[in-house]
Amino acid sequence: MPDTKVNPQRWLWVMRPKRIQMICTHATRGATTPSKQFGATVNWMESPNNVGARHPTGPLQGQPAWGSSCSAILDRNGDVGWVLLDNQSPTYGAGFGTLFLPGNDPYWVGEYASEWEWCQSANREDFTTAQYDRGALEYAKLCLKYDIPVVHLTLNHQVEPAPRGLTRHDKTENGHKLGKSDPGTKFHEEDFEDLIRQKKVELVGGTDVAVTRVYQMDGKPEVYTEAGLHIPDPDAYNGLKATTEARGDTWEHTNLPPNDQLWRLFALPPSYRA
Ligand SMILES: [Zn+2]
C-alpha cells in the first residue's frame, strides 16, 4: 500500500501559529481490530461528525470550532496517512494544560508539535517493527528540518517558553489533565530515539548526529545540541568537540555534517508527501 493523502474537515486545522519544534506521539486505540485502525482513523479525519465543539457566538455561531485531529497517521504496516501540511496545526491532538494563571502564557501542544497518531487497537498490542522504522525515518526528517533534539520531554507545565524536543500525549500536562495514557508502556521510547539517530545518519551522512547543524528559514545557520543547548556560532565549532548530556549519558561529538550534505537533504522535493 502506498501512503495516503487524507482530506481532513476544515475545522480540524488552523494555520500553524508557531514554527515546529516538537513531535508528539499518540495511539489511535479505536474500537476495532489492529488492521482496521488506519482506515477508521482516516475516515474520522474526513467525517462531518468529528466535531469537538461549535462556535458559541458571533458570525460562525453553530459551526464546528474544532475536532480531534493530527498531522499524520502511522499504519501498522509502516504506511503514512498525511493529514496536514507542516504549516497547519491540528485543532486538537494534545491541547492546553491547566495553568491559566496571571503571568503565565500557556501553549497548546499542537501549536508547536507535529502530532502523530500511531495505529494501535484498544487492546494496546505492541507497535510493529514497520511502525518504528517508518516513524523513525519521518521523525528524523522533521528533527533535521526543524532542529528538534532527539530527546523525549515531559511537559509538566505547558507555559512559555516552550522547549524543543519529542513528547508523547501521556507526558504532557494536557494528557495528565485528561487522563490520557497514549502511547503508553508499549511505546519503546529509548530504542525509538536510537533508531531516529540512526535514520539521521542515513539521511545526512557522517558518523555523528548527536550535534545537529540546521539552517533556519532565513538561511542563517544555527546549531543546537541534542539537549537543546543553542550554540550561536556554528563555524567556530566545526570539527571541534562538543558534549551533550541527556538521559544521564554524556556523549562527545566531532564531525559535524558538512553543509553540502545538509543542503542536499533540504533540497529534496517533498515527494514523500505525495
Ligand atoms: Zn493522544
Describe this structure in words.
With 274 residues, this protein is an alpha/beta fold. Residues 206-274 have low confidence and may be disordered. The chain folds into 2 domains: 4-199, Peptidoglycan recognition protein-like (Lysozyme-like), CATH 3.40.80; 206-269, no CATH class. Helix 3 (129-146) packs across helix 5. It has helices spanning 37-46, 109-112, 129-146, 173-178, 189-204, 259-267, and strands at residues 4-5, 13-15, 22-27, 53-54, 64-66, 72-74, 80-82, 88-90, 113-118, 165-168, 211-215, 221-225, 230-231, 242-246, 249-253. The structure holds zinc ion. Residues 26, 94, 169, 180, 182 line the site of zinc ion.
SSE diagram, text form:
Elements: E1 4-5, E2 13-15, E3 22-27, H1 37-46, E4 53-54, E5 64-66, E6 72-74, E7 80-82, E8 88-90, H2 109-112, E9 113-118, H3 129-146, E10 165-168, H4 173-178, H5 189-204, E11 211-215, E12 221-225, E13 230-231, E14 242-246, E15 249-253, H6 259-267
Parallel strand pairs: 1-7, 3-9, 3-10, 6-9
Antiparallel strand pairs: 2-8, 4-5, 6-7, 11-12, 12-13, 14-15
Helix pairs in contact: 3-5
Bound molecules: zinc ion (ZN).
